[in-house]
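Hey,

Quick one before I head out. I ran the complex with S-adenosylmethionine overnight. Inputs first:
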Amino acid sequence: MIQTLKDQLKRPMRDIRISVTDQCNFRCAYCMPAELFGPDFPFLQEKELLSFEEIVRITKILATFGVEKVRLTGGEPLLRKDLPILVEQLNAIEGIKDVALTTNGVHLPKQARALAEAGLKRVNISLDTLDEELFKKINGRGVGVKPILKGIQAAIDAGLEVKINMVVKKGLNDQHIVPMTKYFKELGVQLRFIEFMDVGTSNGWKFDYVVTKKEIFDILSQHFELEPVKPTYFGEVAKRYRHKGTDAQIGFITSVSEAFCSSCTRARLSADGKFYNCLFATEGSSLKDVIREGASDEYLTYMIKRIWEKRADRYSEERTEESAKQRKKIEMSYIGG
Ligand code: SAM
Ligand code: SF4
Ligand code: SF4
């Protein structure tokens, strides 16, 4: 029997997160604090970004490793020109079953339909509160809640499967857990609570700011009747619950309190073409450089396999407040969430 590349891997590679830009129209304090990402911030130049052709070439190779899911992210991915064209090209790759997107939602009213027509199936939209003033403060750009709700509706109307990402930070929006849950239960859209993470080095992370899954669950249990939902595949990141007697679900991304490194099947590609195994990596390997030096697909395959097989990252399982400060990690806006 011929052993395929996929079968040779010690750890399966199932999904890839591709950052298509490091720029963003927001300045969320937990991700790109405005004081650090100011007008002089050295964002990537256009020629430094991977072209669509290069992204598609790398994804075709990753599909031979077993990658079936692609999630486009950033920075804000909807700022990348002609994104539906990329979605269409990725969707046509043999082996790729699912192309999804994570966005702040501002540009969805204009783009949702074209993205769905290009083959996008799912979209995660970030919204941390329904409170107008607090949301303006969180996004750092004075954008109100309405444009995001319009984006959510546009995505639903375009036939996309929608989930909402709420990063919960103690003292910032933990009072908004219940109103958000009520609102999205009624809308029939899955709300996912994301534990505040120490990605990068600029968001002033401390354990004290983390509201854990257990704490959120205890708050929710006083208001809602929830029952666990079985994971649908190995390595599913969200721990899901259903509002009893309904189809409405909530999810938890427990990257701090219950790390899931040992089942992590995800790889990451930055907007300038560096391949990373882990969200908390300090260094990536530039596929763009070797592609632009004329590397063959065989060489790229060899290079990716070597990086993937060496992976022993267990950052979240080993995190301490000290380790969170010491490492010079890459920023969330650069590698994508
Ligand atoms: N701009 C898009 C957005 O906000 O959805 C995509 C990129 S953003 C980096 C991806 C996800 O990471 C978002 O859901 C965001 O809320 C989340 N995120 C950003 N910083 C985070 C942090 N420090 N801890 C946990 N999640 C974070
Ligand atoms: Fe931009 Fe998303 Fe980061 Fe907010 S979380 S600053 S929207 S990249
Ligand atoms: Fe995967 Fe790294 Fe997150 Fe662990 S810390 S789950 S290895 S991305």
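The chain has 13 helices and twelve strands.

Talk tomorrow,
K.
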